[in-house]
Amino acid sequence: MRQFILIMICILLQVIHVHAGSKDITWKWDYSEADDIFIDLLGKAATGFMETNTPNCYGGKLVVKLPEGLHFKQTEAPAFLLIGNAEEIAFNVDVNDSMAILSLKTSSVQTVPSEAINITLNPKAIKGKLRKGMNTTGRLSFHPSEIPTVFKSPITGRTYHLVFNDEFDDGVIDTLKWDTRSRRSPFTRRGMYQEKPYYVLCHEDWTKELRGELRLEVSKYPTQNNVVMTGGILSLGRFMARYGYYETKASFRDCIGEGYWPAFWIHFDEADKYGKGTEIDVFEYIPKDKQIFQTLHWYKKQAMEEQQSEVQHAALDYDKSGQFKEHRSSTKYFVLDEAQSKEHTFAVEWTPEELIFYTDGKVTRRVNRKDDPKQVPSAYQMVYFSCSAGEWGGNVMENQVPAYVYFDYCRCYQESDQDAIYTVKGNGMKVPASRRVGKL
């Protein structure tokens, strides 16, 4: 009886050992090198592979691991057999004892889902017995992005490709793309209210990603009624570009009150203040009047010769004290129809020759370099989202409840021969878009 029990225990241990070593073949998609950290895509990876939508390369890795007892042979036999149309896909296979990595690349931009390609392990390349029911086949299909990757200008005919975007779907601010504006906006005195000064402070807690939108808040600080808090982000130290097409979609549904102005703008680095840089305010919104302002700001160290009538709202060369004013600006403004009841798109097309402003797809302002070269910048500039507060369009201290502005996305496009500067993780690595392939 004791001998019988020992035999049964031995058999049981063998069965356990067999089952422990009989795990299935695993197939795993690795997007770590396919995903460009500056391109934010809506995922459709459930059926296999999703293109990454970078301007010049789409790629990924399929990692296949064999269970215990199976090994890849050191042979010329291909590890994988492909069934389907794979002519436009470049494959590279790296095989070791129990793992094979299939690297995929394609330059084809899909507009509809591709036909599926079945990827099957080649039995002739495997040492050991493939048992019935093992997962020996993977499925590959390419999906188009739900985000437009190309913009063709209806005005200039230029074609632009997506090089930087954020769909604000992560639930947190992506710090690889954005810095919070609080670092650039110190505690600032903005005006007087009831014979007392008040202050404005931009803080990251007033900057949120919620339900697929960037939300910027304007409200009084809970314990100090003379302090107004706001939010904002900028691509400083992450992404700077010159020329291209820049677009956002905004909602002013909760923009109530006065004395603040949500904005989407493109700003120069301080080193270019007196040189090639010009601030481009793609839009600023005044809730009290439901007006949109599209403004340019630049600085000169010498008096400009233009008559003030030629540049709307331009600053005088000299103030009342006789001091020369460096700041210059020109603007166009208009009332926005259905300002709070619907979302609105705002964009600027920036070429070496001109700036074209769009509101809901319609041209609302054009500025040509021939009229004033300084108004069309040629410096590398950063992207801003902000909600400033003060006394423009009323006094912000009059507001009794918080106000919010929402941004659905930020999308930046460039022509294929233009380049941008990308700085990754603060290490100062700058990469022009023309040389960018995959993850930096």
Write the layout of secondary structure elements.
Blueprint: H1 2-20, E1 26-30, E2 58-65, E3 71-72, E4 80-83, E5 90-95, E6 99-106, E7 117-121, E8 126-127, E9 137-140, E10 150-152, E11 159-166, E12 179-180, E13 188-193, E14 196-202, E15 207-210, E16 213-221, E17 224-230, E18 232-234, E19 239-241, E20 244-251, E21 260-268, E22 279-286, E23 291-299, E24 327-335, E25 344-350, E26 354-359, E27 362-368, E28 381-389, E29 403-414, E30 420-422
Parallel strand pairs: 14-17
Antiparallel strand pairs: 1-2, 2-6, 3-8, 4-7, 5-6, 7-9, 10-11, 11-29, 12-18, 13-14, 15-16, 16-17, 16-29, 18-28, 19-30, 20-25, 20-29, 21-22, 21-28, 22-23, 23-24, 25-26, 26-27
Keywords: Glycosidase, Hydrolase
Family: Belongs to the glycosyl hydrolase 16 family.
Domain GH16: 153-418
Description of the structure:
This protein has 440 residues and is mainly β. The chain has 2 domains: 23-140, Immunoglobulin-like (Sandwich), CATH 2.60.40; 150-435, Jelly Rolls. It is 4% helix and 42% strand. It contains 1 helix and 30 strands. It has one helix at 2-20; strands at residues 26-30, 58-65, 71-72, 80-83, 90-95, 99-106, 117-121, 126-127, 137-140, 150-152, 159-166, 179-180, 188-193, 196-202, 207-210, 213-221, 224-230, 232-234, 239-241, 244-251, 260-268, 279-286, 291-299, 327-335, 344-350, 354-359, 362-368, 381-389, 403-414, 420-422. Strands 10, 11, 13, 14, 15, 16, 17, 20, 25, 26, 27 and 29 form a 12-stranded mixed β-sheet that branches. Strand 10 and strand 11 form a beta hairpin. The longest helix is centred in the N-terminal third of the chain and has 19 residues, at 2-20. The radius of gyration is 29 Å and the shape is elongated. Belongs to the glycosyl hydrolase 16 family. Its EC number is 3.2.1.73. It is an enzyme of class 3 (hydrolase). One of its GO terms (biological process) is carbohydrate metabolic process. GO terms for molecular function: licheninase activity.
